[in-house]
Task: inverse folding
């Protein structure tokens, strides 16, 4: 894939998780990115299915020095179906390097439950604990995120709305300005065409992040002396087409915008 980032030293990865590096100067650049994914699942006893997932990507910027990104993700989990209710539990690790130097490693524990309300509607609840092991020790922190949503399915079209709320706390109280409270909502529309073996989707999300304390760099003029607040808006469009039993062609377009009071 190719793209352009107008503020690459305060970026977002593909899951909407922010990462920060460099100084406060606005830096932009064009990039090219290559990635690969692997998924394996195996049925187990009593309705359980175990799975392993791996993904990696490398992004190269054209004009910005020391900003190339390498990102890996490894996930192991298990799902269980029990009548009209399904459960999912997983653990993951995700290291990220900037120009070959470790920037952070993110650890996740996830649990979720989905229940069929009727033939067309599902209700979902989720909980996630995360730990950010950052290169800057003052940025090490934990995150707790709770989510709830509902989906409606017909023969070819599905709608899904998810809301989530979370909070973070720093390992070191001196770095509490890195911790934030998080609120968000997302909507996803999916259309499946059996005739053409294809799937098309559109997703939009909004997320608000309120930092708990003022960053030392923003305490004095020309900054406001306020704690940082970010409004994140993202849109993703996608199309998948199955051309053989084991081959899928896909296209993606994504846009992300971060508006901050700093």
Result:
């Amino acid at each position: 894939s190719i793209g352009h980032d107008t503020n690459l030293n305060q970026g977002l990865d593909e899951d909407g998780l922010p990462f920060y590096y460099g100084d406060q100067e606005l830096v932009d650049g064009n990039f090219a990115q290559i990635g690969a994914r692997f998924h394996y699942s195996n049925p187990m006893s009593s309705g359980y299915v175990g799975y392993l997932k791996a993904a990696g990507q490398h992004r190269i910027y054209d004009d910005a020095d020391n900003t190339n990104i390498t990102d890996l993700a490894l996930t192991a989990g298990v799902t269980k179906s029990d009548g009209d209710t399904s459960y999912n539990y997983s653990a993951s690790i995700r290291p990220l390097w900037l120009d070959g130097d470790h920037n952070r490693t993110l650890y996740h524990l996830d649990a979720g439950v989905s229940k069929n309300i009727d033939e067309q509607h599902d209700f979902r609840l989720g909980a996630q604990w995360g730990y950010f092991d950052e290169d800057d020790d003052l940025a090490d922190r934990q995150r707790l995120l709770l989510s709830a949503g509902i989906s409606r399915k017909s023969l070819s079209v599905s709608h899904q709305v998810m809301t989530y709320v979370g909070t973070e706390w720093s390992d070191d109280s001196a770095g509490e300005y890195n911790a934030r409270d998080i609120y968000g909502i997302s909507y996803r529309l999916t259309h499946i065409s059996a005739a053409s073996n294809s799937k098309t989707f559109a997703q939009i999300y909004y997320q608000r992040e309120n930092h708990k304390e003022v960053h030392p760099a923003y305490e004095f003029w020309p900054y406001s002396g306020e704690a940082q607040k970010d409004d994140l808006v993202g849109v993703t469009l996608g199309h998948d087409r199955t051309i053989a039993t084991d081959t899928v062609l896909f296209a993606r377009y994504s846009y992300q915008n971060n508006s901050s009071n700093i």
Summary: The CA atoms of residues 137 and 172 lie 8 Å apart.
